[in-house]
Each structure stands twice: as C-alpha cells, then as structure tokens.
C-alpha cells in the first residue's frame, strides 16, 4: 500500500505553464528513505498540450541534473479546463529508491504543446511558499538551464517505505550417529566410529575416531 511522503498541497494561488521547451520543476527532500512510485500534481490545461511527462531527477546545486531516474505520463488533453486545477496521479514506471535528506526534482514537460495557449499548467503558491525542502524552478530551454520563481508547486510524493529487515536464524542440529564398524585387522580388533555432525551456516563437520586394539 502506497504512503504519502513529501508534499506541499495547500495555499496555491497561481499557475505556471508547461509547453514545448518550457519545463517546470519542484525540488523536494525526503525526510525518510523510500521507493517513490508515483506523484500527484495539481494541474489544468489550456487548449491541447498533448502528453505530459513527469519524471524524477537528481539535483546539483538545487537544480535538476542528469537523466530521468523514473518517469510516467498523463494525457494532457484530458486535464480539467478549470483554472483551479485538479489532482492527478502519475505512476512513475518501476519507481526509484530515494535516499533520506537528499534533494530530488519532479520535472514536468509537455513537448507537444505549441505555446502558452496549448499548455499544461501546474498550480503553485507564490504568495507565501513555506516548503523548506525545495523550490519551484523553470527552464526555457528544455532543462539545460534553470531559474527560480519564489514559488512552491502543489505536489505529493507517494511510495513505499524501505524497511531494514533483521533476520536471525538459529539452526540446532544435534544429531549423533553411532556406528560400530568391525573389520579384520586382527580377530580382536574393533573400531568404533562416532560421527557427530553439527550444522550452523557453513555446515562444518567433524569426525572423531576412537580405536581400541586388544590383540596387536
């Protein structure tokens, strides 16, 4: 069952467009390590923006960097046209394991959107943003360079917790096999073979041989 981790979901008073080379991001910092499997964003559309791709990227200097760690899509042409927006969940493929106290970026793009009138729009708080784990940024050249608004965008980070499992297994194998083996060394010779087998992890074994020679 998915759990909500990082989020900023109230106080939105503005919206910012996503189309063509104009990308948006919201950086965030998980307080707990987990596997992110989806995000929820508060979106609406103008015109026909086409497919909206949402991905998670690492950051450097507070800005997205590198390739997508995981990604998913939403049909931007099916977004609400209500300017107040609605929440949409985007599944991020196989997801990605996020480290605690490390900053990541949610990156949104709509490459088929031709202009601001054919765009997906991401709601945000630009009057009193208070999310301390990141910030809203924008790029006008397909993510090559990033600049900042004084804004926090509406987002929710959903996933599954990374549990540390401690398994202690104790195997007690106390099997004693006693066999008397007699062979003709002399008529009065008998060898008693006592094999004690103890097993723990590496299955170590040992053999003790006791010999009594009454005739030689």
Automatic annotation (TrEMBL):
NCBIfam families xref list: choice_anch_R
Please give the name of this protein: Uncharacterized protein
Give the species this sequence originates from.
marine sediment metagenome
